[in-house]
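Thought: the user wants the 3D structure for the chain below. I'll pass the sequence to the structure tool as-is, report back what it returns, then summarize two notable features.
Action: structure_tool
Action Input:
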Amino acid sequence: MAGPKLEPFRVEEWMDAYETTAKYNIAETCAASISIDDLYEFAGEKPERIFQYNKKLQYGDIRGSDRLRSNIAALYSRTDTPSLSLENILITSGAIAANFLVLYSLIGRGDHVICHFPTYQQLYSVPVSLGADVDLWRSKEENRWQLNIDDLKDLLRPSTKLIILK
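Observation:
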């Protein structure tokens, strides 16, 4: 049985060809890289307080370490709602993996997805690969790229399962 067919990921193809040689890279999708020295300066800590040099590097916990997930849960808990628990937090290797997990978990054949456009290609091509019918909710230059709620209303269907905004 063949897996989902994804169309070529254009921004990644461009970056593969030009990312390291372009004078101005306007296609970047990631935060700027930092050095270990930058990390020390940002943390305001001595290196030995950040890293445990004697700790063996291993594959790690599948969902992320309990300590990391607990810290993230505490960071995003609000005082006016019940606190998040570490069970509500899943660590991924980046936004691409997180987006894929969400889409793979929520979308299936026959579902309808509306995706604001232009946006990151993954957000509309992965639902298509999973068998969803995808409509692009297009921002228009003549509207100064502002979203038009009437356009969204025209795209809604009884089978609409997800509206993606970015």
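Final Answer: Structure generated. The first helix runs from residue 10 to 18. The longest strand covers residues 112-117.
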